[in-house]
């Protein structure tokens, strides 16, 4: 604009409309140029709330969470029990789940877990005199026999061989005491604070204990390994090294629809115990019963309760596109796909499925945007209470426009 003097006063001559348009465009471009490269604060909820459509529950993955009243459920004779939905880590039923108890051969779940994590399946293992001479349930190993570690896993989990447990412990941990130290470290890593182990097989010892809660943690972790899941799901197995056939002690593999494992246990101090897993229509449950007068009926009752009374509602899977957002400082028609960085799901009583919803909260985006850059959150609600949230990220990079395009 130009300035001229008239009769002692300054007067302004306003620019033409064309000049004014150019100036305003330049100011807008300068604002975009100075805008931060990272997303700003979350926009007001009223602007960005976008409820996701909750469809038929997708059954079918960990801090542990509990349903509202986990003490309600079917009657069981077990002194301690727990029912866990695996994919969401949700406790559906619990009875004295932190009570420290003798675990008997359910101990072998963490023994097998450590063998898989710390050993090599094709390693050759020679049975020691100590291993061959251990008392209790047996895989009938003899001193000097050689098996692969994978074969010994079957001897451990199917016939519940205490001899196989000691052979594995000596091979992986160097000694029984060394392996027990590994067991205790791994238990703490998994958040199993009710457990302390002194042997790999579970024969009664005053210093050897765990809980229904801890056993569920061990089983949930172990079942993520395909080798473990395959071993405990077999009804019989023949070790070719010595032509020995072992049969699984878990009767549920024959009698319960969808049963997939895991381990029995019995001693005078522990009573009858069973950690069991079953899957139906993509929903996986783990039940634990300790000190039961009928472990088969108790386990079947808990598992059936889980399948019939609960559902898994999945709001997003990792990589799902949940929104598309325009990006300031990019070409006018450019949007970025917003993707879920993790899975968001919840297990609820079937009557509450309709109360589950998701809310997308997005940040205002300015170019440049990097692929995988956090751009907001997806929060899950059960009724009006949030139960979890996951980050949302940009699905692809968006470069900033050249300066001359930002001006014009």
Automatic annotation (TrEMBL):
Residues 310-400 form the Peptidase S11 D-Ala-D-Ala carboxypeptidase A C-terminal domain. Gene3D superfamilies: D-Ala-D-Ala carboxypeptidase, C-terminal domain, DD-peptidase/beta-lactamase superfamily. GO terms for molecular function: carboxypeptidase activity. It is an enzyme of class 3 (hydrolase). This is serine-type D-Ala-D-Ala carboxypeptidase. The lineage of its organism: Bacteria, Bacillati, Bacillota, Limnochordia, Limnochordales. Keywords: Carboxypeptidase, Cell shape, Cell wall biogenesis/degradation, Hydrolase, Peptidoglycan synthesis, Protease, Signal. The keyword Transcription does not apply. Belongs to the peptidase S11 family. It holds the Pfam family Peptidase_S11. Pathway: Cell wall biogenesis; peptidoglycan biosynthesis. It comes from Carboxydichorda subterranea. Removes C-terminal D-alanyl residues from sugar-peptide cell wall precursors. It catalyses: Preferential cleavage: (Ac)2-L-Lys-D-Ala-|-D-Ala. Also transpeptidation of peptidyl-alanyl moieties that are N-acyl substituents of D-alanine. Its EC number is 3.4.16.4. Transmembrane segments: none annotated.
